Amino acid sequence: MASPQAAALSGYIARLRPLKLQTQTETERMNHTPEDNMSKSKRRRTEDKVKNDDEDAKDAAAAISSGVTASAIAASYNDQIRPLLDAVDRLRHLKVTQEGIQLPTIVVVGDQSSGKSSVLESLAGISLPRGQGICTRVPLVMRLQDDPSADSPKLQLEYSNGRVVATSEAMVADAINAATAEIAGGGKGISDAPITLVVRKRGVPDLTLVDLPGITRVPVQGQPEDIYDQIAKIIREYIAPKESIILNVLSATVDFPTCESIRMSQQVDRTGERTLAVVTKVDKAPEGLLEKVTMDDVHIGLGYVCVRNRVGEETYDQARVEEARLFKNHPLLSKIDRSMVGIPVLAQRLMQIQASIIAKCLPDIVKQINERLVRSSSELDQMPPDLNNTGDAVRAFFHIVKKVCSSLEKILVRGEFDGYPDDCYFHGTARVVEMLNRCAKKLPRECPRRADELFLTEEMNVLEETTGINLPNFLPRSAFHVMLKKKLEMVGQVPQDLVNEVWDYVEDLVMKILLQHSENFPQVQSSCRRAIQSLMEKTRARSAQHVKELIEMELVADYTANPDYMNTWTAIMEGQKKFMESVEDMFKPTKITLQGFGEVDVSHLRTHADLAAQAFDLRAQLTAYWKSIVLRLVDGLALHVLRGVKRLVENDLEEELADELLCNNMAGVERMLSPQPSTGTKRDRLKKSIVLLQQSKEVVANIMDRISAADEL
Ligand code: GDP
Ligand code: MG
Predict the structure, then answer these.
(1) Is the dihedral of CA 461, 466, 472, 477 positive or negative?
(2) 282, 309, 310, 323: which to mutate for ligand 1, most atoms within 8 A of CB?
(3) pLDDT in tens, 611-657
(4) Which of 1, 250, 665, 689 is the most buried (most CB within 10 A)?
């Protein structure tokens, strides 16, 4: 909404402020305290109107009996509201509620036979289907429009997607019954598809109300078993939105707290702030009525209006005269305040409430229409293009592949994750590095050995078994190899686990990204899945081979150019002399602390002093060399994994997907051409919704223009 329009609307609404939703007492108070912040001329206008309202309310009954009902009600109406109400009615007619936009609505609820239809009839001055059984079986939207030029009432019914049927006062009951039968069947079933009845008549209040099926606890003959649930569902749908005003019709003949309609409206409007009560049949049960409406046991925030509807074959005018007479002369009913009795007062109150609720809701409706229009349009833009031939399909397919690969390259190679700022799972490089770090931690920093092993016994055993015919100060190479092989076997699974973990993760990531980018073509997703699975099998096999080779290479030769090896070995060997003294000299302590090995006990070595020096050297070599091995393994694995990932996203994935989908004469991409019912439906739905929202936008734009024009006067 453009800001000048917004300003115009808020100005307009500010002027309607005296009509703000008020409780009955507030209304009375307000009538004597006009808003201070109004300009003088506006205040005068409002004061005049308020005075009119006030006088109208007081004189309503008298006016009716003097036969000027129509003009009395009409004169009380604030003309400024009419265009707003028309706009809301047009939005309702466009079915903007289907887009989830709630309209300010007065909803009539009541237990069965409480007099709902009779109240509407009284407000409209026409006859509606009435009776003991269930009569209102579908929601009936009643649009009453004051038409001073109408000599006779003009009635029309609108239902079932645009059917418009002109009717007459005499025929309206039959016409509604026929339309109901068409919508909800000839039996006693109900439906939530509404009928709209437009009544243009001189002197009717400008009001739009929705009459709902009455609530029945017990199904009558011919009604479905779950009738209560069905009706309750429709009612709840209408009264739950906070934009709805609940007009609760209560019969004076019943105890209000036992009314089902009270229970239901309290569920959605606990404090009663948007509930107004109409008490019918006051002629039948005048006793105790004054107490009932003043005690307000059932929390009706917007107050009570007591009415007497048409009885029997009375005409509308006769009924109003009878009503006025009743409230004036009846010994009990005449005690009820005049601001709480009679159809004219009810009409007055409803118009007032309607004006304030529309003024309150309209800015938000304008906003919602615009938001939804933007959303639906961009959703439609994102829909896949229509594919007409194999060329189109191939192009669409490679477009998907390109998007998948570039997306994977970003998250797995370049470490950019702007597409998923909050979803760590998709921060690919960080997750792979995490796995590498975990793997490096699992590879022991010191050469692994059994915790309970006595110092150097493993080395001694190996030396004994590899002993040959040679000089005693020669360390046999085979002894070192046997030891190395044993140690490498202890950690061999760790690199294997790492590559498995990495490829499991990458496979899952590739699948997820692919599903995201191909959601418009579900018909190719299973082939793509197959292609990825087969590609990942190959990748895993390659990695398994690589890991095997890494370990094998370690066994081929003991070699390192890392100067750290010699430094460490020399440092450890400096302790050899101290160690040998401890082994050979019975008087030295058996517990000593050695560089590289910590505190050790040598007592068990004293009987094997001949091999101890060699065993010590063997251990020194292994300890120094182990560090190089671990470094080499971790670095090798990291580079292998990174290269694998790069190769996958830069080459293999595209190739594999293309092979799978283009093989067999492009059978895979051909499938993309087969129409997708879900896409078609979605496209249609979006197009319809955009048309509807555009029309709605026009409706509100028109009203905005009128408001700005009115503002400039
Ligand atoms: P609905 O089922 O809530 O729509 O109720 P109806 O409007 O069909 O009314 C049920 C019955 O109550 C009808 O026979 C009406 O004539 C009668 N009725 C409604 N209002 C009044 C009233 O104010 N006084 C009297 N005496 N009867 C009424
Ligand atoms: Mg009814």
Answers:
(1) negative
(2) 309
(3) 899 999 999 999 999 999 999 999 999 999 999 999 999 999 999 99
(4) 250
Out of 125-134, 274-283, 635-644, pick the least confident.
125-134
Q: Following CA atoms 189, 195, 198, 199 in sequence, which dihedral angle do they give, to the nearest 10 degrees? A: 0
Chain centroid offset of residue 396 CA: 30
CA distance 79 to 135: 34
Mean pLDDT across 48-61: 41
Structure tokens at 496: 């294997």
Annotate 126-159 with b (16+ C-beta within 10 A) or e (fewer): bbbbbeeebbbbbbbbbbbbbbeeeeebbbbbbb
CA distance 198 to 153: 10
Residue 52 has pLDDT above 60, yes or no: no
Q: Over the range 241-262, which residues count as b (16 or more CB within 10 Å of their CB) and which as e?
A: bebbbbbbbbbbeeebeebbbb
117 CA distance to ligand 2 centroid (A)? Answer: 4
Closest protein CA for atom 28 of ligand 1: 281
Report residue 248: phi and psi, to 5°.
Answer: -95, 115
Q: Which candidate, 141, 125, 18, 142, places its Cα nearest to that of 81?
A: 18
pLDDT of res. 214: 78
- Give the tokens for residue 271: 């404090």
Q: Which residues line ligand 1 (CB under 6 A)?
A: 110, 112-118, 130-131, 135-136, 214, 280-281, 283-284, 308-309, 311
Count how many Cα atoms sit within 13 Å of the Cα of residue 166 in the half-sphere of its side chain: 3
The 3-state DSSP class for residue 120 equals helix
Question: What's the mean per-residue pLDDT of the chain?
Answer: 84
Q: How far apart are CA 415 and CA 255, in angstroms?
A: 71
In this prediction, residue 713 has a pLDDT band, given cuts at 50, 70 and 90, of low
- Cβ 251 vs Cβ 263: under 8 Å: no
How far is it, in rounded angstroms, from Cα 159 to Cα 195?
Answer: 5
Surrounding ion ligand 2 within 5 Å at CB are 116-117, 135-136
**Contact (CB, 8 A) for 502 and 641:** yes
Structure tokens at 399: 């477009």
Q: Could you report the per-residue pLDDT of 511-533, keeping only the tens digit for each? A: 999 999 988 888 889 999 999 99
Q: What angle do CA 52, 53, 56 make, to 5 degrees?
A: 80
Band of the pLDDT at 24, cuts 50, 70, 90? very low
> Could you give the 3-state DSSP secondary structure of residue 302?
coil
Q: Give the residue whose CA is nearest to atom 16 of ligand 1.
A: 311
- What DSSP state is assigned to residue 649? I
Across the range 160-173, mean pLDDT stands at 85
Q: Is 21 left (phi over 0), alpha (psi -120 to 50) or beta?
A: beta
> Strand 207-211 relative to strand 105-110: parallel, antiparallel, unpaired?
parallel
Report the distance separating Cα 199 and Cα 595, nearest Å: 104
Q: Is the dihedral of CA 73, 75, 79, 81 positive or negative?
A: negative
pLDDT tier for residue 160 given thresholds of 50, 70 and 90? confident
> Average pLDDT of 299-312?
93
Of 60-74, 369-383, 444-458, 628-642, least confident by mean pLDDT is 60-74
Closest residue by CA, ligand 1 atom 27: 281
In this predicted structure, what is the pLDDT of residue 46?
38
- 392-416 pLDDT, tens digit per residue, is 889 989 999 999 999 999 999 999 9
Residue range 474-499: average pLDDT? Answer: 91
Which are the contacts of 301, defined by CB distance < 8 A and separation ≥ 6? 23, 269, 271, 272, 273, 274, 275
